[in-house]
Amino acid sequence: MTMLAELQDLSRRRHERPLPRVSVVHGPSVPGGVLRVLAALAVGGLVLLTAARTSLLPDLALSAALVLAMWTAVRPGRVPSHLAVVLSAAVLLGAQSAPFDPAVLWLAPLGFLTVRLGWWAEHTSWTGRVEWAALRATAGRDLTICGATVVLGAAAWAAAAASVGVLVVLGGIAVVAIGWAFLPR
C-alpha cells in the first residue's frame, strides 16, 4: 500500500469509528515546584544539621549545604540527595560523640526523607503535579523503614555500654536488610 493510500485509509477509519470520550478526575495534588523546593531545603537542612553536631567550620558547612541545595533545585534527583546523606554520615564520624552519635536517631529519618523528596522531585517537573494519593501509596512503607531504623538505633544506643564496634556493624547490616526488604528494586 502506498503512503497516500494508508493516509486515506486512516482518515476513513477515524471517521467511521470515532475515539471514545474519556473523562479524567484529578484529586488533590501537590505542585512539582513545591516538591523541588522541599527537596532542596531537605538536602541543605540535613547537611547543616549534621555539621552543627561537629566542630566543622561553619563557613565550609554552609558552603556545602548551599551547593547541594542549589544542585537539587536546578537538577533534582537521587545523586544530590544521596551525596548529602553520605556527606552527613562522613561528617558525623568526626563528631565528638563518635562512633555512635545520638543525633542519628533523628538524622536517619531526615536522610530517608531527603532521598524520597529527591526521587519525587526528579520525577516531577516544575509545572507538574503529584496527587496526594500517589504520595500516600508509599507512606506506609516509608514510615515502616523510618520506624525500624529509629528503633534499631535506639536499641544500639541503649546497649552502647557493650562493645560499640560490634553494635555499629550489626546495626549497619540491619539497616541494609531493612532497606533491601522494603524498597523496590
TrEMBL record:
The chain crosses the membrane at residues 30-49, 56-73, 103-121, 157-183. It comes from the Bacteria. Keywords: Membrane, Transmembrane, Transmembrane helix. This is Integral membrane protein. It comes from Isoptericola chiayiensis.
